[in-house]
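Study this pair:
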Amino acid sequence: MIWSLSKGQVALEAGRAVGTAFMTPFGNTCATLNTIIVDEAMRGRGLGRRLTTTALEQAGDRECRLTATADGPPL
């Protein structure tokens, strides 16, 4: 369902997926940011923040909510 409703991106390192982020719009006024995942070996390099920033840009003027584990809110 996320794939069909969302806009997303995948970060690649040497052809391998190392991060993802999705923005799921709900009409023109709100959206969720979800499936923001960074490979453990790639953490601490700002990749999660860059993916999150891109997802927020895709949301435009929509109010956003983050769907996350305990690791997500610092983003």
